[in-house]
Backbone:
């Protein structure tokens, strides 16, 4: 359970980081908080030639409130999000979600950008980003581009990020009603199934290869109709402990809880 | 040593410089290079919490951080916090409440528990359980451990 050998570089500028990524191509992996990458190295599921540690890059560790949106830098840690009064006030969905992510020692190092770029189907932030209709900023040698969260998550651990690109920030709309729920065997475990809701966008996680926006259920005006629509449009994969039918049932339970929370909150 | 890099960090108040391979985890560095074997290695993929140490004031998993990432950082281990008496109340309480059996998880438990103690607020047992949810104990069970932390946090 020791990581294979690799080289390590800690660039001090974005240009230097992009140059390293361009030079090493597929052999390079970006290291941020390392809370998913390092275990995958330890288990030898990943064997990069070089880790490009981006935690020394300036400007990616800030939470900025700008008019109608909140821009969160890719290097902002879960612990920073947890402690941020701005996040609690303007993006309550993230504030609710963060407490469910692993444990204190992991939240101190894991980053928003790392979680989004990894795109684990059981992770909290990708579903939140889709529910919030967030926009990501991606840097590369060709400049900067912006991608909507709804178009970013392509498949199982697969995103729109190309080799040589770095996710630098995510912008979330400020305000609005939201709810976040997940079911786990123990606190901090990966969700059996989870739900992030913003306004009337219901997005389930660990319910498919990517966050699943329950489009039809989200359109319905009554709980009964929404649940009926959900049963038709969601087809969660079974895991070691839960059948697909169990997870679908649990998704309905979460939908009902979120619906009741949202309809009674102001 | 392939790809080796020089690092300098402060461990329990003492500045140390070493040449390390990037693949070396912080906890392996502390144990093998510095002989600080109080931080234990359990699962080596971030699940058990036995390797919990403090880096720049925050608890982290020693198996999920590379030693090269700790370059320039201030690292504190169970040995340091024990010697400085910062853990004295928790250690006494763990002893009195019989909150350990084999002791393997204890250093990590103490590091995680002290993180809560430092927040200087009253906690429910549920909050204590949540805070140590990333630290596994395979012999005493958690009741006595929660009792011991409860005594210090709320006593």
Residues:
């Amino acid at each position: 359970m020791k990581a294979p050998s690799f080289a390590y570089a800690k660039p001090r500028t974005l240009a230097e980081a992009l140059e390293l990524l361009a030079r090493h191509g597929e052999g390079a992996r970006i290291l941020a908080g390392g809370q998913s990458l390092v275990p995958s190295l330890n288990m030898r599921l990943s064997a990069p030639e070089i880790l490009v540690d981006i935690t020394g890059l300036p400007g990616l560790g800030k939470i900025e409130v700008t008019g109608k949106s909140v821009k969160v830098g890719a290097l902002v840690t879960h612990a920073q999000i947890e402690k941020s009064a701005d996040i609690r006030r303007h993006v309550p969905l993230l504030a609710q979600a963060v407490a469910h992510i692993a444990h204190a020692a992991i939240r101190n190092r894991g980053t928003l950008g790392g979680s989004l770029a990894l795109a684990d189907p059981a992770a909290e932030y990708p579903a939140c980003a889709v529910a919030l209709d967030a926009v990501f900023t991606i840097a590369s040698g060709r400049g900067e581009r912006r991608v909507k969260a709804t178009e970013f998550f392509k498949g199982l651990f697969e995103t729109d990020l190309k080799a040589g690109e770095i996710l630098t920030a995510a912008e979330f709309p400020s305000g609005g009603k939201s709810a976040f729920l997940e079911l786990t065997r123990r606190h901090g475990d990966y969700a059996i199934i989870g739900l992030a809701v913003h306004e009337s966008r219901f997005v389930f996680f660990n319910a498919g290869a990517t966050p699943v926006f329950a489009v039809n259920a989200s359109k319905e005006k009554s709980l009964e109709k929404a649940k009926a629509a959900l049963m038709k449009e969601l087809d969660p994969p079974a895991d070691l402990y839960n059948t697909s039918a169990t997870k679908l049932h649990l998704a309905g339970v979460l939908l009902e809880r979120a619906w009741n929370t949202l309809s009674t909150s102001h | 040593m392939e790809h080796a890099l020089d690092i300098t960090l402060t461990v329990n108040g003492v500045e140390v410089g070493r040449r390390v391979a990037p693949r070396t985890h912080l906890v392996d560095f502390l144990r093998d290079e510095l002989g600080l074997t109080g931080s234990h290695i359990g699962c080596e993929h971030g699940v058990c919490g036995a390797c919990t140490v403090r880096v720049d004031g925050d608890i982290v998993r020693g198996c999920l951080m590379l030693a090269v990432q700790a370059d320039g950082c201030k690292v504190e281990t169970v040995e340091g916090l024990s010697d400085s008496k910062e853990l004295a109340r928790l250690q006494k309480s763990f002893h009195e409440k019989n909150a350990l059996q084999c002791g393997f998880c204890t250093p990590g438990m103490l590091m995680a528990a002290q993180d809560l103690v430092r927040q200087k607020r009253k906690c429910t047992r549920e909050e204590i359980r949540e805070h140590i949810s990333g630290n596994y104990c395979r012999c005493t069970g958690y009741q006595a451990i929660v009792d011991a932390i409860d005594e210090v946090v709320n006593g």
Remarks:
- The two ends of chain A are 50 Å apart (CA to CA).
- Chain A is about 35% helix and 25% strand.
- Chain A has a mean pLDDT of 96.
- The longest strand of chain A covers residues 166-173.
